[in-house]
């Protein structure tokens, strides 16, 4: 392809990436190092028959003029990143000096908003991602072995969880695990404890959210793996059968190696998606038990006082977290590509 042809071919995509990816990231990065201006205060002395009193008020005109002159706010550098709502290095260092055991350290570390959100985010990401890949692979194998007249119907029902809007699906499961719901009542009956509530226990809330995340995302892995199974070389599979390979050996030595590139693709997509877990927390109304980085951004931007700088700092930390998560997979993919080309 000639350079001129490639330029015009890539131009629309490049412009879209610049407008919708690069510029928003740059604007968020800039906003994260600026904080809103503080109100300009003036001190007024009032003299009366009972003496002189001093009062402090806000100079509205001076405050508006300052904010109009510097709309980004005042430059604070990395101060927002280091405050208690984010990395909180000072608080973490203090906890390290004052605690005498790992359990106490991590327990108190969970009281800091950022690290509390990171604990759930990482737990959700590294639990849901491998499990949805495994379940998606199992479903794909099962559907691929069905009679062709049954495949269409089974595929349709297998895709239903992915079709349901995440917030709607999480709300339905939230109502089902309620003490008056189907699942909640069943668990109370099996445990013989009428006071048992899934919503009152942090570990059970975490498990419920993770189970829903797997249920919702497994169809995506299923579709990808099922498509990959259609390209499986039949002569290789037949050779393995002639050599006496069992069903498990065929899967292990023929099917799985063939699907490894697709496993990498699904892992990349779902790592990014699960690290930004948000709808499940809102749908389960689980803010008291589980928060995530995306939920912190939503919380900062909600209400009457929108904390744009705080939300921007959390967004930048989220981008950095996603990059760190994806780097091992991307590095391995790059090495495999170089090994094949040389």
From TrEMBL:
Similarity section: Belongs to the binding-protein-dependent transport system permease family.
Listed name of the protein:
Carbohydrate ABC transporter membrane protein 1 (CUT1 family)
User: Cellular component GO terms, alphabetically?
Assistant: plasma membrane
Entry keyword set: Cell membrane, Membrane, Transmembrane, Transmembrane helix, Transport
The residue ranges of the ABC transmembrane type-1 domain are 118-326
Q: What is the lineage of its organism?
A: Bacteria, Pseudomonadati, Pseudomonadota, Alphaproteobacteria, Rhodobacterales
Identify its membrane topology class.
Answer: Multi-pass membrane protein
- Could you tell me which InterPro entries the record lists for this protein? MetI-like, MetI-like_sf
Highest taxon of source? Bacteria
GO BP annotations listed: transmembrane transport
